[in-house]
## 1
Amino acid sequence: MAERRARLDTFLKRQGIDPDAAVLLAGDASNRRYFRTPGGVLMDAPPDLEDVRPFVRVARHLRDLGLSAPEILAADVDDGWLLLEDLGDDLFSRILATGAAPEPLYEMAVDVLVTITQHPPPPWLDPYDLGPLLAETDLFLDWYLPTVGVEPDQERRDTWHDAWAAVLTPQLDASPVLVLRDCHVDNLLWLRGRPSPANVGLIDFQDALAGHPAYDLASLLDDVRNPLPPGLVARLMERFLAATSLEPSAFCAAFAALSAQRSSKILGIFTRLARRDQKPRYLSWLPATWRLLEHRLKNDGLLAVREWFDRHVPAPLRQPDAFNGPGNP
């Protein structure tokens, strides 16, 4: 750690920045750390744990579209340092916490997704197709179920995969777009004074893939951090569809399926963060995640997955007190 800190100081000095002026910012669920400096925000991504190259490539692509990913001011990709344009502190989540009306902010974010949808994804992005989507749902089997006392045997796993494949496969024939994958209020900043769609700052997009245009909209509107009233969700979906050439009924079916997939994944991720990474605060979002998932499971197109949950995850295992057994966080 001391050796890496010394190399960090050297990198900052090469940019004319006093290392003592670097202030650690709040971290996230990854292995990255961020420091605010007088010359920009420093991303510290240990190369044995993170690779900054995808971030650099996606940031440059988004900026080419006229969107406000942070400019890369300096980089040492081999050592995992990026000096980024400082987009400020006006995260959507912070603005909403002050009591600001949500609709104008979400409309700005929807317009960003519309812009992304209007352009083909860069050819170097990997596909967000059935393989990775199914792999993500396994986080529910591997982390959530064991925590509530259910060991997923092979039969459960096989029928789980079959159910999700039946639900997701019909939704994967849309032309792919760049999918940010974590488009939510903690990763969006209001950049006052910039014209739309550049008035929304984008961060945490290094895991972008080429997938269905409904995924990021589901990530934005079905967000456990800030659940939205159904009427607002409907209006924002109408705004998105009015600005694109997507067929509404097929898009809404894909939205429901991908929202449910994402919620299932999140249940596993938040459990893993609590158990493995000793970050129990993520457990506070499990009830909201279950509510979102159960709402989307009512969609007729998700019958196979809904039946799997009803058979293998009874209602008592969908509650916070299901985590109170021996050895659970």
## 2
Amino acid sequence: MLTPRRALIDLGRYVELMGRVLTSPDRWRMFYRQYVTEMFQLGYNSIGIVLIISFFIGAVICLQIKLNIQSPWMPRMVVGYTTREIMLLEFSSSIMCLILAGKVGSNIASELGTMRITQQIDALDIMGVNSANYLILPKVAGLMTIMPILVTFSVAAGIGGAYCTSFMGTTTIPELNEGFRYSFNQWFFWCGIIKAVVYAFIITSVSAYKGYTVVGGSVEVGKASTDAVVTSSILILFSDIFLTQILT
């Protein structure tokens, strides 16, 4: 059970760990190699699920707005306009990162947790290597780098899904074009990018902390993986409130 005392202890240990992580790497060539690998494993391997979910969500949003919101008193372009705003401001950044927290966060926590219980991290520390920096920093930097690309793909896939609804006779391509172009604010796109980068840091750092500090055996690794997903998701939702208030 999480108590205020336990929460403060975890916060202190997390800050201490991040102090070790966010330092200059001892060997930049090795860091760059790991950085590219993590971008591929955490980001590139997530493109498929991002495209599939965003495509169908964009189509569903478009259909729901058309069937339940649009009326003779509203212009026809409101379907495309509302779909664009939802994809830009919330889904492609916040909701997509919640989904990735389950995929990426559990992966990071279980990987580091397994390394901890098999004493691989202890071996790195004995050799004088800053294990936190060596193992965690490439993950943090990799996902923060690739996340804007994932957000861009998500927005594009969602708009593509909205266009596909025109073949169902629900709306027309000219109506969607008008809505997508109407009163476009480029800052909303950058708001989504900024949010996604912050969420990427939350996902990787929190999940790495949960895995890095595992004590016990395989059962504790499973619990750490679950805790990483839950904690990351809650922090993303809290951060979304403040970032939305600040940025928009």
